[in-house]
Amino acid sequence: EDALMKVGSWNSEICSITDVFRVNLLLLEHFLQLEDIQVRGIITIFDFKGLNMYHLAHYTPSVIRTLINLVQECIPMRLKGIYIINHPPIFNVLFAIIKTFLKAKLLKRTRLFGYDLKELHQLVPDDVIPEESGGTNESYDYDPLERELESEEGFYRNLSSYGYRDTPAQTEHKYDGLLTDKIP
User: Fold this and answer.
1) Which of 19, 21, 63, 169 gives the lowest tally of CB atoms within 10 Å of its CB?
2) ∠ CA 173-156-127, rounded to 5°
3) What pTM was computed for the model?
């Protein structure tokens, strides 16, 4: 399975980088439910067409570390490849920072193609690559995915209730014999 993410289309005046992360985590959780992706993994293509300095300013070292930690340590997904296309030359500066945090395996699977996509066409089916980049992928109709996500809203709200605390909870737990309870 392959996924295309148009990073350069992000309007950071309307949507914060935190919201972008939230949406991407929601989509990752959705994709993790698909058996095909569980078995075969995923190749993600990031299209940076339209990316500019204003976008890059949101990617602080802390944000980059958090993003990479999520990808490498938290998401139980087989990432077969991360391909970055249509990135401006300034992205090379950001990627130089990113590389310092990547494990060797993920770094090996990450490829920057810039605007020369001949090699990408040899690696990825044309129906995944956008028309404007020489592929046959038309504008994606997000309506069915949106309806599917909305139909599973309860599941995702429940997932979002989990997390971690910086300090242990001070509540006392009484074991009541249920299998889901932790034994003190």
Assistant:
1) 169
2) 145
3) 0.76
* 82-137 pLDDT per residue, tens: 999 998 888 888 888 889 889 999 999 999 999 888 898 898 888 877 787 788 87
How many helices (H) and strands (E) the chain has is answered by 9, 4
Question: Tokens 């990450």 — which residue?
Answer: 110
Closest CA to 55 of 8, 97, 98: 8
Q: Return the structure tokens found at 165.
A: 């605390």
Supply 31's token pair.
Answer: 């994709």
* Structural Rg of the chain based on CA atoms: 19
Query: Has residue 163 been placed in a domain?
Result: no
Cα distances from 29 to residues 39, 40, 103, 138, 158, in angstroms, run 15, 16, 23, 25, 12
Split into its structural domains, the chain has a count of 1
Residue 92: give its domain's CATH number. Answer: 3.40.525.10
Among the listed residues 58, 54, 55, 77, the one whose alpha carbon sits nearest the alpha carbon of residue 66: 58
